[in-house]
Design a protein that fits this description.
The chain has about 170 residues and is an alpha/beta fold. It has a domain of about 100 residues: Rossmann fold (3-Layer(aba) Sandwich). The chain has a six-stranded parallel beta sheet, sandwiched between helices. α3 links the parallel β2 and β3. The longest helix is centred in the first third of the chain and has 21 residues. The protein is globular and about 40 Å long.
């Protein structure tokens, strides 16, 4: 069965390339808003469904690499574990936005340092990056967005990237 919704069929070749080059584990970096809404949750479910379908059809494992914070990180981590994916958590030094139960969905972890260093580590470990932003990059509310910082790092590293923006048309 193929994945549902608007999932990124064109990028499946990037996932296949990542699986062939490595150790049979496809590592997908995730960076997302702390203000996850239904649209963002649906996008994460679509990506996880696509990865599950791909892993089963290709006989590879999936590892979600994320930063351990509330919102998109926690939701994706919990949902990925329900699919028996690996979840590697790169923890920020500031634990104020890390949920107390992060270790219940993390299969491995490491210290990430300040947010910028943590985000670099996510991009470095991942073969492909998925971002769930609250607003478009040029929106005033995105000025200090760690999600967009991670997206720029992924672009600079020439990593394939999927992007979901929850509030496209809001001023």
């Amino acid at each position: 069965m193929s994945p549902r919704g608007y999932v990124f069929h064109a990028e499946m070749s990037a996932i296949a390339d990542a699986a062939r080059k490595g150790d049979g584990v496809v590592r997908v970096g995730l960076s997302g808003t702390r203000n996850l809404d239904e649209y963002g949750r649906e996008a994460i479910e679509n990506v996880l469904d696509a990865l599950d379908w791909f892993a089963q059809s290709q006989g590879v494992e999936v590892e979600i690499v994320q930063g351990g914070c509330v919102g998109a990180d926690a939701y994706a981590g919990e949902r990925a574990r329900m699919r028996s994916f690996r979840v590697h958590t790169i923890l920020p030094v500031d634990r104020s936005r890390v949920p107390a139960n992060w270790s219940s969905w993390s299969t491995s972890h490491e210290e990430g340092g300040v947010y910028r260093e943590r985000n670099k580590k996510i991009v470095r470990r991942a073969a492909i990056v998925f971002v769930v932003a609250d607003y478009p990059e040029d929106h005033g509310k995105s000025r200090r967005s760690g999600t967009w910082m991670t997206a720029r790092m992924a672009k600079e590293a020439m990593k394939p990237m999927w992007t979901c923006v929850q509030h496209q048309d809001e001023e």
